[in-house]
Design brief:
alpha+beta; Butyryl-Coa Dehydrogenase, subunit A, domain 1; Butyryl-CoA Dehydrogenase, subunit A, domain 2; 7-stranded mixed beta sheet; two-stranded antiparallel ribbon; 11 strands; globular; binds flavin-adenine dinucleotide
C-alpha cells in the first residue's frame, strides 16, 4: 500500500478556489488568517501527518492497547512519542482559546488538520479528538475556577478530555442512566457509577484525564430532564494545579473490537469520585450537546478520512495490478485493471463521494466558524441554522458512505484486499464505528427529520433549500455546469415536496417520521453532494474558460461531477420512492411474526 500523502492540491482547490477561505476569515475579522498562515499550517501539518503519525497506524492496529493488572492502559508503540511531538509542536493548541494559551485559529482550520491526522491514524487522533470538544463545553459552560485550572492544560494537550455518557443499559436512551452524584457540603459532588465504551477513558499519553461525566442527583426528575454534567478529574489538581491525589476513577477493562484497535475504549468505574457541576443542575444534556454537535461533525470527518486513505490505496493498486485485457490494450499479456469499466466505476464512486463530501464538511466547518465568531448577529444566526441542519447530514450520511467507499476499496484489491497484508481492510474496520458512536445513524436521521426539519416547522429545511436554490438561480445560465445545475434544481423541488408530504403524514402518526427518517437523511445527503459537485463544476468550468495551466485537473473535476450526476444521484429517486411508501410496510408485522 502506498504511504499516506495529504492531497494538498485538492485541499488548496477547495480552500482557495471553491470556499474562498481568505475572504471567509476576513469576514470573521480574522485577516491574520491569510494565505501565508494557511499555507504554513497546510505544509507543516502535512509533514507531521505523513512522517510522524502515519507510520504508527499499522502497528497500532496490529498491537492494539493493553490493560495491565494494576489498571493502567498502555497505548500501541509510537503513540506516546508522536503525541509528545503533537503537544510540543503546538498542534494540540491550534484552535484553543487564546485566553487559555491556545493559538485561537478558527475551527475550520482545525478541521483541515484533523482530517489529515485521522487519515494518518484514526485511533491515535481519538486520544486528542474529544479534548477539543471538552474545551468547547468547558469554555462555554464551566465556572471561572474550572476555566482557570483545567482549560490551559487541556488546550495545550498536556491533559486530555473525555465524554462519559454511556452505561450498559443506557446508550441512546440516556434518561435510563443510573450513575449518581451526591451533593457535598463544600459544593462539590461524589460521583458513583459504571460507564462503558469510554474513548480514551484511561491511557498513557497524558499526565491527567479530565472526564466530563453525565450523572443524576438523588432528587432529579426521571428521564433525560434529570441529567447533570460533572467535571471529574482522574487525578485531583494540587495547589499548584499539577496532578495530585487519585480520585476513585479506574478503568475496569478495555474492549476488544472490530476496528480502531489502537484506541482505548474503556469500562470506567467512578467510586465516590469528586466532581464539580458544569452548567446548571439537570442541564447536563444541554452542555453535552455543545460537545456532541462539535464531535458529530468531527465523526463525519473521520468517515471521510478513512475514505481518502482507501481511495489512495485503490488508485495505486488499480494502476499497478494487471489482469485481463482492456479496450485500450497495449498488447501486453495483461493490462492494469484501471482500464476495466467496472473498476473505474468503483474508483469513481469513491472519488465522487470523497471529494463531494469533503466540500460539504468543510463548508459546514466554515459555518461553525461563522456561528461562533461572525461579528454580525444575523449572519451568526444563519450560520448556526445551516450548521444545525447539516450536522446530522455530515455525521449520518458521510459515515454511511464511508462504509461503501472502504468496501469498494477492498473490492478493487480483490482477495488481496480481504487479507491483512495490503492494509486496506483496516480502513473498512476503522470506519465502521463512525456509524455508531456520537449517536447511531438512525438517531441522526431522527434528529434531521424530527428535530431539525419538523421540529422547527420547516424553518431549517427552508434555510437549506434557500441556500441550494439561491445557488441554482445564480448559475442557471449556460456553461458546462448547466446540466448539473438544472438537475440539482429539479431534485431540490422533489426534496421540498417530499419534505412537505412527510410533514403532513407525521402530523397523523409519529411512526411516519421514524419510517421516513433514514431515507430522508440519505436523500438530503445526495442532494447536498449534488450541490457540492455543481458548485465545483461551476468553479472548474470557469477556470477552463479563462484558461488555466491545470486544465487536466479541472477537466477531471467536470468528469467526476458528470459521473456523480449520472451514476450516483439516481439513488435519490429510490429514497424518494421509499419515503413515499410511508410507515405501513415497516409496521404491519408484529414483533413475534418476524421469524416466520
Ligand atoms: C468504540 C466505541 C467508542 C465509544 N465512545 C464513547 C465515548 O467516548 N463516550 C460515551 O459515552 N459513549 C461512547 N460510545 C458509546 C456509543 O455512543 C453508543 O454505543 C451509541 O450511542 C449507541 O448506544 P448503544 O450501543 O447502547 O445502542 P442502543 O441505544 O441500544 O441502540 C441499538 C440500535 O437501536 C437504535 N435505536 C435506539 N433507540 C432508538 C430510537 N429511539 N429510535 C430509533 N432507533 C433507536 C439505534 O439507532 C441502534 O441502531 C462508544 C462506543 C463504541 C463502540
Amino acid at each position: 500500500m502506498p504511504a499516506y500523502k495529504v492531497p494538498l492540491r485538492e485541499y488548496r482547490y477547495l480552500l482557495y478556489e471553491v470556499l474562498g477561505a481568505e475572504a471567509h476569515y476576513r469576514a470573521l475579522g480574522r485577516s491574520d488568517v491569510n494565505l501565508e498562515l494557511i499555507e504554513s499550517v497546510l505544509e507543516g501539518a502535512a509533514r507531521f501527518a505523513e512522517d510522524i503519525i502515519a507510520p504508527t497506524n499499522e502497528p497500532g492496529d496490529r498491537v492494539g492497547v493493553r490493560r495491565t493488572d494494576d489498571g493502567r492502559v498502555i497505548s500501541p508503540p509510537g503513540f506516546v512519542a508522536a503525541y509528545r511531538q503533537f503537544v510540543e509542536d503546538g498542534w494540540a493548541a491550534l484552535c484553543g482559546p487564546t485566553e487559555a494559551g491556545g493559538q485561537g485559529l478558527p475551527e475550520s482550520i482545525g478541521g483541515v488538520l484533523g482530517e489529515m491526522l485521522v487519515s494518518a491514524n484514526m485511533s491515535w487522533k481519538l486520544y486528542s479528538g474529544l479534548t477539543d470538544s471538552a474545551v468547547l463545553a468547558l469554555d462555554r459552560h464551566g465556572s471561572e475556577e474550572m476555566r482557570r485550572v483545567y482549560l490551559p492544560k487541556l488546550v495545550s494537550g498536556v491533559w486530555s478530555g473525555t465524554m462519559v455518557l454511556t452505561e450498559p443499559h443506557a446508550g441512546t436512551d440516556l434518561g435510563l442512566m443510573r450513575t449518581r452524584a451526591e451533593p457535598q457540603e463544600d459544593g462539590s459532588y461524589r460521583v458513583t457509577g459504571t460507564k462503558i465504551f469510554i474513548t480514551s477513558g484511561e491511557h498513557d499519553l497524558t499526565s491527567n484525564i479530565v472526564h466530563l461525566v453525565l450523572a443524576k442527583l438523588p432528587d432529579a426528575p426521571a428521564g433525560s430532564r434529570g441529567i447533570s454534567m460533572f467535571l471529574v478529574p482522574k487525578l485531583l489538581p494540587d495547589a499548584a494545579g499539577e496532578p495530585g491525589e487519585t480520585n476513585g476513577v479506574s478503568c475496569a477493562s478495555v474492549e476488544h473490537k472490530l476496528g480502531i484497535h489502537g484506541s482505548a475504549t474503556c469500562v470506567m468505574n467512578f467510586d465516590g469520585s469528586r466532581g464539580w457541576l458544569i452548567g446548571e443542575v439537570n442541564g447536563g444534556l444541554k452542555c453535552m450537546f455543545t460537545m456532541m454537535n462539535h464531535a458529530r461533525l468531527w465523526v463525519g470527518l473521520q468517515g471521510l478520512a478513512q475514505c481518502e486513505r482507501a481511495l489512495q490505496a485503490s488508485l495505486a493498486y488499480a494502476l499497478e495490478r494487471r489482469q485481463g485485457r482492456t479496450s485500450a490494450s497495449s498488447g501486453a499479456p495483461a493490462d492494469p485493471i484501471i482500464g476495466h469499466p467496472d473498476v473505474r466505476r468503483m474508483l469513481l464512486t469513491q472519488k465522487s463521494l470523497v471529494e463531494g463530501a469533503r466540500a460539504l464538511i468543510w463548508f459546514a466547518a466554515q459555518r461553525m466558524d461563522g456561528a461562533l465568531h461572525h461579528p454580525d448577529a444575523a449572519t451568526r444566526a444563519e450560520a448556526a441554522d445551516l450548521l444545525a441542519v447539516l450536522t446530522p447530514v455530515v455525521k449520518g450520511f458521510v459515515t454511511g458512505m464511508s462504509l461503501e467507499c472502504t468496501s469498494e476499496a477492498i473490492q478493487v484489491h480483490g482477495g488481496h484486499g480481504y487479507v491483512r497484508e495490503t492494509g486496506v481492510e483496516q480502513f473498512f474496520r476503522d470506519a465502521r464505528i463512525t456509524m455508531i458512536y456520537e449517536g447511531a445513524n438512525g438517531i441522526q436521521a431522527l434528529d434531521l427529520l424530527g428535530r431539525k426539519v419538523l421540529g422547527t416547522g420547516g424553518a431549517l429545511a427552508r434555510r437549506l433549500g434557500g441556500l441550494i436554490g439561491g445557488f441554482c438561480e445564480r448559475h442557471a445560465g449556460g456553461g458546462e455546469q448547466a446540466e448539473f445545475v438544472a438537475r440539482l434544481a429539479g431534485l431540490l423541488k422533489e426534496w421540498t415536496v417530499a419534505t412537505e408530504e412527510v410533514a403532513r403524514r407525521a402530523a397523523r402518526s409519529p411512526d411516519e417520521t421514524g419510517a421516513a427518517a433514514m431515507d430522508y437523511l440519505q436523500l438530503t445527503g445526495y442532494l447536498c453532494l449534488a450541490w457540492s459537485w455543481a458548485w465545483m463544476a461551476t468553479v472548474s468550468a470557469a477556470a477552463l474558460r479563462t484558461g488555466t495551466a491545470e486544465a487536466a485537473f479541472h477537466r477531471a473535476k467536470l468528469a467526476t461531477a458528470r459521473f456523480y450526476f449520472q451514476r450516483i444521484l439516481p439513488r435519490a429517486e429510490a429514497h424518494l420512492d421509499a419515503i413515499g411508501a410511508g410507515a405501513r410496510s415497516l409496521m404491519e408485522i408484529p414483533p413475534d411474526q418476524f421469524a416466520f
